[in-house]
Amino acid sequence: MESNYLQKFYDKTPDERITALQSAGILDEEAIANLQEGLKLPQEIADNMIENQLSTYELPYGVALNFLIDGKDYVVPMAIEEPSVIAAASAGAKIIAKAGGFRTTIQKRVMIGQVALKNVPDSVAAEQLILSHEENILQAANAAHPSIVKRGGGARRVSVRILPADDVEGIPAFLVVHLHVETLEAMGANIINTMMEGVIPYLERLTGGEALMGILSNYATDCLATAECRIPAALLAKGEFSGDEVRDRLIEAYQFAYVDPYRAVTNNKGIMNGIDAIVLASGNDWRAISAGAHAYASRSGQYRSLTSWKKAENGDLLGSLTLPLPIGAVGGSINFHPAAKMTKEILGYRSASELESIIASVGLAQNFSAIKALVTEGIQKGHMGLHSRSLAISAGAVGQEIEQLSQLLKGEKNMNLATAQSLLAQIRGADTVD
Ligand code: MEV
């Protein structure tokens, strides 16, 4: 559903875009002032966030449009340096919105922590002991972090994995104890790490083994998010390709990424273009999300596409993306980073689950857009069109020269830095540009 305030949004100036979002009721006066000032991270906060801090590193902060998710419209903030990501997400989401939007499923939000034990005298007996003492282990874990229990969360279940020795590589056996923890609205890394360290003495006594470490697992297989869409083929026609042809080619693109890891990595990188950008904008740990997503893509033993695209019985295109999304709606820099606070305001999400739904939908839209371009007109047309501005800046263009040079570059066969520099020289009436 395209509302008026979104019309030609990309053609507006940043101030006009902010005004458009204000008239749509998405931004209030304070948010507008913050956006216009530039969402600066105060030096004092930055200095207290990391060791040896010197300055801050900035990225463009923009919004992807047209996201209709579970019946609700969203304007999706993204922090990203790559020119085509927001354009691609918005274009993909626009077609999916015409088809009824995204449907999402968040089954549960349970995080996993691990204790690795070595030199356990009898792993099979130890496994039985651990499982029969599950209540005590949960109690020890919850006692280590009582505040999460008070809020209604806490450690819920214990499981055990016996990892046999690998004599060829000289790797000893490990007995790995997992705690499954409800961290509610938080991502919960600190909660879990505290709990894991809290249960170590008890586990050592119980098993006779020696703990190597206790730590959260970023492979959050108990925190999966799914986004799906169903698109009538008629909405897919592009250039010389009919809707049915585009649908079939999209399915083949998925099949290619399913069987070939070389393609799957690029396919999934495209998905993560959008996911990392919103995860970063939301103040969450994008390295954790990326690491978990790529591991999940390998769950069958081969690295495969994270999305799937199939044909429904009536000929519609069915898209689906499932991945671990252990993000938080509170905690970490979410509470104090100006951009993370702005993202919360713009999205208006009320829970971590809702944020998961948005993030998974962004990933699906991003993949849809990328593979649709790849199997029709190719990626370079759109990419280079958007890249022309960055290239103009790299060549040294300033002010109005940027738009002028970007337009000239779009007409060039070889759009590269050398061409940009020579065109800039022509614009300036000079022979060379330093
Ligand atoms: C570029 O950042 C992302 C793509 O390569 C993704 C893909 O190939 O699916 C276009």
From TrEMBL:
It catalyses: (R)-mevalonate + 2 NAD(+) + CoA = (3S)-3-hydroxy-3-methylglutaryl-CoA + 2 NADH + 2 H(+). It is an enzyme of class 1 (oxidoreductase). Pathway: Metabolic intermediate metabolism; (R)-mevalonate degradation; (S)-3-hydroxy-3-methylglutaryl-CoA from (R)-mevalonate: step 1/1. This is 3-hydroxy-3-methylglutaryl coenzyme A reductase. The keyword NAD applies. NCBIfam families: HMG_CoA_R_NAD. PANTHER family: 3-HYDROXY-3-METHYLGLUTARYL-COENZYME A REDUCTASE. Keywords: NAD, Oxidoreductase. SUPFAM superfamilies: NAD-binding domain of HMG-CoA reductase (SSF55035), Substrate-binding domain of HMG-CoA reductase (SSF56542). Its EC number is 1.1.1.88. GO terms for biological process: coenzyme A metabolic process. The keyword Oxidoreductase applies. It comes from the Bacteria. Belongs to the HMG-CoA reductase family.
